[in-house]
Amino acid sequence: MFPIGSRSSHINYQIMLEMLYLISSEKSEIFEEIYLYRITILETCSMAISHCSSY
Predict the structure, then answer these.
(1) Tens-of-pLDDT digits for all 55 residues of the chain?
(2) What is the 3 state secondary structure string of the chain?
(3) Dihedrals φ, ψ of 54, to 5°?
(4) Domain count, the chain
(5) Distance of alpha carbon 49 from alpha carbon 8, whole angstroms
(6) How far is 43 from 25, CA to CA, in rounded Å?
(7) Buried b or exposed e, range 42-51, using 16+ CB within 10 angstroms
């Protein structure tokens, strides 16, 4: 189950901060790819959650 609302966006924000830290410390293309992939998943999930909760 996905947490809905402010808790969900807080978790997303925390993940993004962690990934940004990894990218800045590693300067690696692999981490950038993982980051972009992760962001796409998060955006898709949050859109799906907001779409479902609107009904």
Answers:
(1) 455 555 666 677 787 778 777 766 656 666 677 778 878 888 887 888 777 776 6
(2) CCCCCHHHHHHHHHHHHHHHHHHHHHCCHHHHHHHHHHHHHHHHHHHHHHHHHCC
(3) -75, -15
(4) 1
(5) 10
(6) 24
(7) beeeeeebee
Query: Which residue reads 């692999």 in tokens?
Result: 30
| Signed CA dihedral, 47, 44, 8, 21: sign only | negative
The answer to whether 52 touches 37, Cβ cutoff 8 Å, is: no
Question: What range does the domain containing 43 cover?
Answer: 6-53
Q: What is the pTM of this model?
A: 0.34
Residue 15 belongs to some domain of the structure? yes
Residue 1 in domain: no
